[in-house]
Amino acid sequence: MARPDLQPPAQPDEPPAQTEIQLPEMPQPDQDHSYESQTSTHTPIRQVQLLLSLLATGVGAAFGATLDLKKNLDQLDDFLESIGQPLISRIRSKLDNFFNMAYVSAGFLLLAFLCSVASSILSSLALQKK
């Protein structure tokens, strides 16, 4: 005796009706509606703008952090000298060299930002001429 749950499902007498799928019309090759033509000039400009904003943020953070750290270290050095503990004064020249190197690296970052701005302006002018 066969179990009812193990029997194959009953086959319908008629096949199901097939529905037609309407596809959207594709643009003709002579029309310029391709994805590349719509985004080819805008995407690189947006990427450059993102890069420039990151560089500008890095420049500001580098100069700001170096200035604040140097100022706080000067205040700490003055305080420690006032209480008779010249701990930082002994290594002051090395710390000044460290902060000067931080200013130099921030300056290179600023130079990179300015060169990128110039390149972006020249590129956008060249794209407008096309």
UniProtKB/TrEMBL annotation:
Residues 1-15 have a biased composition (Pro residues). This is Uncharacterized protein. The chain crosses the membrane at residues 48-67, 102-127. Residues 1-42 are annotated as: Disordered. It comes from Tagetes erecta (African marigold). The keyword Transmembrane applies. Keywords: Membrane, Transmembrane, Transmembrane helix.
